[in-house]
Amino acid sequence: MPERLSIRRAIILYLLLAFCLLMLPGCGGGGSSSPAPAPPPANDITPEPGPTPLPDPDPTPLPVAHTLSGTITAANNAIADSDVNDPLALYTSNNDPNGAQLVTNPGTIGGFACARPTGIPGDRFEKSSDIFDRYEITMAEGQTVTLTVSDFLDTAKGTNDLDLYLYNVSTTPPTLAASSLGQNPVEHLTVPAGGTYQILVYAFKGRSNYLLAITIGTTANLGPVFRLEEDFVPDQLVVSYSEAPMPNKSLARLGLSSLRGNSSGPHLLQLKQTGTARNNLPGLIEPNLIEKYRTIRAVIDLRNQPEIKTADLNYRRLAQTTPDDPYYDHQWHIPLINLPQAWEFTTGITTDVVVAVVDTGIVMNHPDLVGAILSTGYDFIEDPLFSLDGDGIDDDPSDPGDHGDSGLSSFHGTHVAGIIGAATDNGKGVAGTAFNRAKIMPIRVLGLYGGTTYDILQGVRYAARLSNDSGTIPPRPAEIINLSLGGPGYSTIEEQTFQEVSDLGIILVAAAGNDADTTPYYPAAYPGVLGVSAVDAGSQLSYFSNHGSYIDLAAPGGDLAQDRDHDGFGDGILSTSAHDSIISPIPDYLFLQGTSMASPQVAGVAALMKLIHPELTPLELDTALAAGQLTTDLGPAGWDEKYGYGMIDALRAVQTANTLAGGQPLPPTLILTPNTLNFGLTTNTLECTAAASDSNGTPLTIATVVTDSTWLTVNGTTLDQNNLGTYQVVVDRTGLVDGIYSGTITFTTATDKQSTLVVTMLVSTGIGIFPDTGTLHLILTDETTKTVARTQIITPNEGIYPFSFSDLPDGFYSLKAGSDYDNDGVFCDPGESCGAYLTLDNPLTISLDSDRIDLHFFNSFQAAPFEATIMHQADLLNATPLDQ
Questions:
Q1: What one-character DSSP code corresponds to residue 398?
Q2: Coil, strand, or helix at residue 777?
Q3: pLDDT for position 868
Q4: Which uninterrupted H or E stretch holds 739?
Q5: Which of 65, 327, 648, 803 is the most exposed place for a label (fewest CB within 10 A)?
Q6: Cis (ω within 30 of 0) for the bond into 838?
Q7: CA nearest 438: which of 372, 349, 376?
């Protein structure tokens, strides 16, 4: 109808104009009051009147063009190496002591180093090397420096070897204060005394991205390294042989001789100074340390000899043993919800609870999950186009990856499963919420582009032992089902199915969504499903978290743009993960943020409740939740749309389960709120509340309160007769050098039970350095994942990267930003920065039908305390760049 009217109007206009020209020549454009036109000058030629051009009766509409713009914020304390391999990045050499790059404390530095020219056309270091990267910083005693070699493994060339040195520049000449070297994926050292230092990253072999973290905390769990400052006998090595001892002639060819040993035991070897082991590098090692350096390199070389089973230094003092769960210190969310106190009451229970993880599947061979995964899972992705495993539904719920491009898979289900059930106290990785008592039933329903309602419902029905498309049911139903998935859009069949499952007594827990709005997110918004929002390390609603009328409770979901615990990593939730590989996914660990990470913590706590009260029903849980018996209240008193009934409290939940089960009252436990205090850079005084947990009248008395640091004091301000109440904590920065400081306040009860309050503080004079994650490459893709625009942003303005795309048609888009320090054509590699709108864990589709100038998201380093199973460089070279 609109087109017909426009044609009709055009015809009428044409007739009127023609009539005016033929009959009323003077009517040209005005009424009778218009002045007559002036006669033309004599030398002008007046053209003969001609026909007036007619408007196009059916004009082709011009293409719609929109602008998409906003800002990207670099994560706090992020710093980019000033001389990386990306030729588009700004370049300032930091190779020499006089040109060391100034960095902040705390800080996480993303960088690149290479021992030799890359030889690759287009690389910044095609014809030169980048052996040294130097950073100058003031640090406090006890701080740690950790170097993660992102591309440690190289299938073509073995390993890429970067070493770490710390020089005290307050002495003349500078002296070596600490070191960490060897063929290790992670090098680490501890600052011996407060002062100004230069940190040296040294490329001994190969090339690699890296992450350099200046933090607080122990490095004892990061694996053994060689240190020049340790006490060992120079030029002596202790070895054992794979079979028979090496003949003297073979030893001589390696520059070695045998001092003593027998056929069945260790052998002591002497290194000759004329041996073939790599010697000192000029200007790097002090003369008095050359023999020790040569000895360490000889040990490293011997470990690569097939005849050698083990090779070690001849220490005068032995290293300490390594405690369990080496990454536990990075799991800030565990003490935040009082899990350690809850574990005291559940670790002696020998039964287990089945928790179904309805997600992307699980990397089944992950060493921190192997013992927790049931063999009765299932894959319900019907369409092979989206399953990426070459088939439809089957009994293999392993996760092959959920993205068509190598290196971009999320391994979301593996991360979620680890939050619930990662093996705890097993000497590796992370700790799970359920402390070895959850058995994970893996249900795969999400693949490329997510999953469908139908496939998800089939997975849920299977977990509940209801009829489903597999034609089978598991021998034992899930008692808890976690759904870290969802979206807007109500479905009747979904609501009916979830209600049917809940009526069977199965507890359903779901993520509230990461869109930062109040739109209902399903299945979290259905009756019978616990909807979980996310909080950060400060117990505030995470910036991405949904909120609204359907929120039941909250749990830690993180915020990678912050580092409140100053461990050098953004405050994501650390859990099991993996990396894409050309053969099969490689198990690993990764920080992620999102309500997807909050939901499994609630599921894990529900599993602890089930251990104590196996008959716990969804109704009992809902009733206790509404009564405030499972949570720490946040926000306004009672329920609110941000936190529901509050943040899950594992101790209160376990105590409530015990009461519901009719058990004897559990002894009271001292609860410190908060259990960590972060004074940041300027705060001097904070408060902590000490209270007794529910104990049915059993008294609890605080006997002593002791601090471990001279800069830290504590005083009771409002206390009852049992010394419970409010304590004021004060820090004093007077006379302290720049750095991160950590202290503890130990509260001891009359029954000798201890609770610890961890205090952190920053001291910094400030050097005007703003966050910087390096040159960012922005990729804008449409709904088919086709790249429609790509740009580079060179420098941020005080930590903020502005961006803008223009001439975009109507459509649906996704936006991702990352760096490419190694210039391999793939950004967001380990050791590089990465971000996506709205979050990296759950990118938000941008609906564009008008200009958008309000987009904002964060960019942070792909930081995780990786084990030795880091993605092979060969896999990266075979990855498809996003612009192809």
A1: B
A2: strand
A3: 29
A4: strand 739-749
A5: 65
A6: yes
A7: 372
The DSSP result for 225-264, as a single string, is -B-TTS-EEEEEEEEEESSSPPPHHHHHHTTEEEEEE-TT
Whole-number Å distance between alpha carbons of 12 and 29: 17
C-alpha to C-alpha distance for 275 and 226, rounded to whole angstroms = 20
Provide the 8-state DSSP code for 571: B
Terminal Cα distance for the chain, rounded: 43
Alpha-carbon dihedral sign for residues 431, 437, 442, 445: negative
For residue 728 the two structure tokens come to 């004021």
Provide block-wise average pLDDT over 10 residues at a time, the chain (884 residues).
43 44 39 38 41 52 82 93 95 94 92 96 96 93 91 78 93 88 90 92 95 79 82 86 88 89 79 55 70 91 89 57 59 93 87 95 92 93 74 84 65 93 88 94 87 88 93 96 90 92 97 90 95 95 94 95 85 88 82 94 98 95 94 93 96 93 82 89 94 76 95 95 96 91 93 90 79 93 88 87 94 93 90 90 88 93 46 25 24
Residue 535 has a pLDDT of 97
Look at residues 332, 360, 841 and name the one whose alpha carbon lies nearest to residue 595.
Answer: 841
- Pure H helices in 518-617: 595-612
* Closest to 555 measured CA to CA, from 332, 759, 362: 332
Compute the Cα dihedral for 234, 240, 245, 250 and give only its sign.
negative
**Residue 11, both tokens:** 């015809």
Which residue numbers are catalytic? 359, 412, 596
Residue 272's pLDDT is what? 84
With b meaning 16 or more CB within 10 Å and e meaning fewer, what string describes 451-464?
bbbebbbbbbbbbb
Pairing, β 66-74 against β 800-808? antiparallel
Give the angle subtended at the CA of 104 by the CAs of 870 and 543, to the nearest 5°.
70
Exposure string for 260-290, b = 16+ CB within 10 A, e = fewer = ebeeeebbebbbbeebebeeeeeebbbeebb
Which pair of structure tokens corresponds to residue 499? Answer: 């209600």
User: Is there a contact between 379 and 444 (Cβ–Cβ < 8 Å)?
Assistant: yes
Cα 516 from Cα 696, distance rounded (Å): 40
CA angle 772, 778, 782 (to 5 degrees): 150
Would you put residue 348 in left (φ > 0), alpha (ψ -120 to 50) or beta? alpha
Q: What is the pTM of this model?
A: 0.68
E strand or H helix that includes residue 578: strand 573-579
- Tell me the C-alpha distance between 607 and 432, whole Å: 11
